[in-house]
Amino acid sequence: MDTQQRIKQIVDGSDVVLFMKGTAQFPMCGFSGRAIQILKACNAGEIKTVNVLEDEEVRSGIKEFSNWPTIPQLYVKGEFIGGSDIMMEMYQSGELQQLFAAA
To answer: Beta strands of the chain (E only): which ranges?
Structure first.
């Protein structure tokens, strides 16, 4: 199975998937840490995290998969939402909370 297929399986396998540097317990960059805090503040429920630092293929492949240059990357119900800046904007506007309330 190629990397793009693997990433698609991960994204489709959980309602909320965050590709990040590090883990939810130990984020390895400020943006990943902020993304986890935002998701917790939204009561996002069960969050599947993927530590891209453990898999170089996924780390480079996710950027191609989403056509988005940075990590972290959030997917909800298979749909790409964005990185930590977009998550913060959506959180501040209430849009992200509505997304999880609907899900």
So the answer is: 16-20, 48-51, 73-76, 79-82
